[in-house]
Amino acid sequence: MTTIQQTKPKLKTSAMIASIAAEGQATTQAPFGHALNKVAETDKRIVGLTADLAKYTDLHIFAQKYPERFFQMGMAEQLLFGAAGGMAKEGLIPFVTTYAVFATRRAYDFIHQIIGEEHLNVKICCALPGLTTGYGPSHQATEDLALMRTIPGLTIIDPCDALETEQAVQAMVEYDGPVYMRLLRGSVPSVLDEYGYQFELGKAKVITDESDVLIISTGILTMRALEVYKELKKEGIGVRVLHVPTIKPLDETTILNEIKDFTGPIVVAENHTTIGGLGEIISDLMVRNQVFKAVTKIALPDAYLDAGALPTLHDRYGISTEKIIEKIKNILN
User: Fold this and answer.
1) DSSP state of 140
2) Is the pLDDT of residue 264 over 90?
């Protein structure tokens, strides 16, 4: 159900896990959980597993409707992914949820060897990607894309909003193979619906067709890029937004064509450390294809980030709408 967030989060302890929605922005409650329920109605192969985090990854929605297909594995992430691999071998489609830090740091070897090497049909959906929690480095998975990209054959999705999360769940079921998706949970902003957007696995898409600045973005930074587009449009500055929801396999053709044809400044924006994320991926793509243009990266620093209220941290590390606008204006000047 879509609602409108009426009040701005207060900057206190609760703001460490506050919704990333801006004041007055439309949101959808638990889009992942409801989307999973919808596809599970017709596909009996779908099962849900988590490591004591059903409520905090929206998998409790699935557990309530399909208790016989839900498996609570306790605080044992390595067991969680080992069991998921076994279920996939028996023909089931496990949707596995936990926090991104626990999947990528604690259970990486199990994902790599059990799920990745055998190319098993396991869908790994991990909450708190990048800087979407204020609880410090223990919970901030700022390097998850860099780690998961190294697993051969693993598809990686970084959705922008509620709509794309819902559409990605359907695409994941239709795709036969392992997938890692950065999971947006709770009250998730809905921004792409007004642009008539449709997710396609492995495809990057131009959302706004302008000519002054090109922002190539992924995940929630596409949401920020669209906010920047609206604000700068009021000042007569046109922002072209190229959204890259599939990190692997990368839509190299679309990205290269956009970069080659664009004559203004180019910015790559991501909710991830500057090391190993979309910025480096695109830089590598350009070098391999001998496309030599200046590109500005907007990303999280190569550092252990602070704990605190999310709005404060987004400002501090340069991924808030205001800070991105400031950066772009500096580039234009």
Assistant:
1) -
2) yes
The answer, yes or no, to whether residue 225 has pLDDT greater than 90, is yes
pLDDT at 9: 47
- Residue 96: CB partners within 8 Å, gap ≥ 6? 48, 49, 50, 80, 81, 84, 103, 122, 123, 124, 125
Q: From the DSSP assignment, how many helices (H) and strands (E) are in the chain? A: 12, 15
What is the tens place of the pLDDT at every residue in 40-92?
Answer: 999 999 999 999 999 999 999 999 999 999 999 999 999 999 999 999 999 99
Q: Produce one character per residue of 84-102: b if its CB has 16 or more CB atoms within 10 Å, e if not.
A: bbebbeeebbbbbbbbbbb
Full DSSP string of 57-78:
TTTHHHHHH-GGGEEE--S-HH
Strand, helix or coil for residue 328: helix
Kindly list the catalytic residues. 77
